[in-house]
Design goal:
Shape: globular
Radius of gyration: 17 Å
Order of helices and strands: HEHEHEHEHEHEHEHEH
Helix content: 40-55%
Largest sheet: 8 strands, parallel
Low-confidence stretches: none
Strand order of the largest sheet: 7-6-5-4-3-2-1-8
Number of helices: 9
Bound molecules: pyridoxal-5'-phosphate
Distance between the termini: 17 Å
């Protein structure tokens, strides 16, 4: 199967899962996770209709998108989804329009600092740790909530949504609980901060995106299934 066939297949599966949560498939955005993916395959994905690429390493951003001949079309965005070190923020901001992996306050402060310097705004997602086998993410709602409060004081940041990764287990119900707790976190935050509404939920990967969509995902991040035809 080609990348474009797989993309259509994924869209259909998303639409079916969306129906179960009373939504239309096109309400859900797809981040095509192109980390470690070569330029030719990225081109194929863009031809198939991909509008958002997901990358997770600063160095790879420079290598892949730093060359003028490999510039992306203006309607294609890159979202940063990986663990982000403070000293990489400056580089990352040059390439991406959104960061899904904000997981600590010192990172927020660094993003604000670099945005100020470059007169930029940045869309950010706050990552909640909902699975014990991963290290990334705020550990609990209160810590995350304080991060959101800090971000809301600064015009440089647009608080776009929340992100999580489910445990990498073969237990669908456990994954579902991860996604459900992110959705619950959104409700609590929107009650706590009245000027936050319609927060996005970035959740679901190749092996669990349908469960995530059933639980309310508005953005799924899919790499291996789209580019390799496998679920890792
Ligand atoms: C790699 C990655 C994905 C995509 O994972 P696949 O299983 O290849 O779909 C999604 N989110 C994050 C944060 C990732 O690092």
């Amino acid at each position: 199967m080609s990348i474009s066939n797989r993309y259509r297949d994924i869209q259909e599966r998303i639409a079916l899962a969306a129906k179960k949560s009373g939504r239309e498939g096109d309400a859900i955005k797809i981040v095509a996770v192109s980390k470690f993916v070569e330029w030719g395959k990225i081109q194929e994905a863009l031809q198939a209709g991909v509008k958002i690429l997901g990358e997770s390493r600063a160095q790879e951003l420079v290598q892949k998108y730093g060359k003028p001949q490999e510039a992306l079309p203006p309607d294609v965005a890159i979202h940063f989804i990986g663990n982000l070190q403070r000293n990489k923020v400056r580089t990352v901001l040059r390439y991406v329009s959104s960061i899904h992996s904000v997981d600590r306050d010192d990172l927020i402060l660094e993003i604000i600092k670099e945005c100020k310097k470059n007169e930029k705004r940045m869309s950010v997602f706050f990552e909640l740790n909902t699975a014990e086998d991963t290290k990334a993410g705020y550990r609990n709602l209160d810590d995350l909530s304080r991060g959101v409060e800090l971000a809301l004081k600064h015009d440089e940041l647009e608080v776009t949504g929340l992100m999580t990764m489910a445990a990498n287990v073969n237990d669908d119900e456990q994954k579902r609980l991860s996604f459900r707790s992110l959705a619950a976190c959104r409700e609590l935050l929107q009650r706590r901060f009245p000027n936050l509404n319609n927060l996005e939920l970035s959740m679901g990967m190749s092996n669990d995106f349908e469960i995530a969509v059933e639980e309310g995902a508005t953005i799924v991040r899919i790499g291996s299934l789209l580019f390799e035809g496998i679920q890792t």
